Amino acid sequence: MGQNATLKKISVQLDLSISTVSRALKNHPDISENTKRKVKELAALMEYEPNTYAINLRTNKSNVFGVIVPAISNMFYDSFISAVEEEARKNGYSLLILQSGDDPLQEAESLKLCKHSRVDGIFISVTPDTCSGELFIKYQQSGMPVIFFDKVQDSDMFDKICLADEEAATMAAHTIIKYNKKNILAIFGNPELSITKKRKEAFISVFEKGNKKVKPGIKFCNNSDEARQIVASAISGSSRPDHIFCMSDEILIGAMKALNHSDLSVPDDISVLAISNGFIPGLFKPEISYIETSGYELGKLAIKRMLENMESKTAPKSIILPSRFVEGGSL
Length: 331
Hints:
Rossmann fold; 12 strands
């Protein structure tokens, strides 16, 4: 029945003009409460549904935000999306959620879909191979705000909502030094990403300035399986590390898989510290000590900035979310 219900049919049954019916459904102050009640009751009975597509074309507004992440299954992005969705819903927006799989071609297709869906703004964590910002500049010039988060473009032309990458890595390095670790294996992500560069440089800098006798072994990987292989190889060698530092939850998962398949005990034989969203460390026994980088809190900051853009266009900002140390039993 809802498919056949129109403003005209409602107006005929109530002997009202189409414009009166339309304004009543929008709670216009010029329409009496009695008329609003009659119109809404009949609209509900007839299962009237407004033509959303037509409204979008007329207003050039969809009340939908696009969210593009590398993988929805990643707990960090899952918590980010949860925060964004909660605040978006409160403000009358919904989400179109897409995943790039860290593939720049898929990322481009996702951006194209956002454009065709006429989203009001885009949140995106870019792939390691996203090189050019020209496409994003075009989107912004067309009036569509783009908020970069976590893995971001190296440009001051965009809004960026980031974790305190240098702070988190610095805090991790000082913690490792505090526990007097000598043979450190530090595993970082894709070396081309700005998040990896920031964390690696800050981490190494602490040792170069404060503890030159200890030089961490630095390794890079693209996924948890590569991290597993790196750790498995390291702990089977003649110079076994006494500590493993993991730059992210994904790396931590791979590292712990290797340790769980060995005879080593955490923390008696080898200690572990990670930068984490907070969920993954609690899955292990003992729980892994970590520097917290919250996807949920990052999402809160990102949606707040997007809603500011919806009200008025302002100069791009870089917003940083502070980190904190959470002690487990792995040190």
